[in-house]
Amino acid sequence: MILKSSKIAEYCMKGSPNLMIEVIIDSIRVSLMSQHRVVVLKDVSNERYLPIWIGPCEAEAITVKLQDMPTPRPLTHDLLRSVIREMGGKIAHILISDLRQEVYYARIVIEVAGDQIEIDSRPSDAIALAVRAAVPVFVNESVMDKAAKEPDEDIEKESPGDAGEEKADEKRLSAFADFVDTLDLDDLDDREE
Q: Does domain 2-147 have CATH number 1.20.140.10?
């Protein structure tokens, strides 16, 4: 689906009453239970994170560009960026626009001859294209309100060097220390001979 509008603000007013929240790619994580990956987007002005499940190929496409890994030939997202540019377009930004029945929807916003064209996309493909074009990624406020996660307060308040944490670790490890103290390590020398 392709939409045309002269301004993204017009889209926000007509198509959605919500604001767009800028995010950055915080990380890409691997599920130990499946072949899927999770791209974690972080709100640039808050401690909110939006996890989106993506496929392994899309995760690899994003990672390759983020890590500046050379490829012998252009990948699909490189090709798409080149096609847009050669046809006189410029990618303005991408927008994670909706979340329905646990499925995310995105829009690639392209400027062509003074107009903006919005192309429906999977978020993973839109993000892979955004990292190649070095354009901002936005999330509709309603999507962030529905699905964003905030770190637990307990985790935020604790620092790695907390004395209380060190004492708790010592207490948990004391059983292992007692066990190690009971080992007769001299027997190991006898076995080696």
A: no
Question: How far, in Å, CA of 63 to CA of 51, rounded?
Answer: 16
Three-state secondary-structure class, residue 122:
coil
Angle at 37 between CA 55 and CA 90, to 5 degrees: 60
Q: Which strands, in side-by-side order, build the sheet including 103-112?
A: 2-5, 115-121, 103-112, 89-100, 137-140, 20-30, 37-43, 49-54
Q: Please report, for the chain, the start and end positions of each structural domain, with discontinuous segments joined by +.
A: 2-147, 153-192
Question: What parts of the chain have a pLDDT lower than 50?
Answer: 1-15, 155-156, 159
**Residue 65 DSSP code:** H
pLDDT value at residue 187 = 59
Task: Please give the single-letter amino acid code of residue 163.
Answer: A
Structure tokens at 193: 């001979």
Which pLDDT belongs to residue 1?
A: 44
pLDDT of residue 2: 43
DSSP structure class, residue 35: S
* Angle subtended by helix axes 123-133 and 76-86, to nearest 10: 60
Q: Are the CB atoms for 26 and 41 separated by under 8 Å?
A: yes
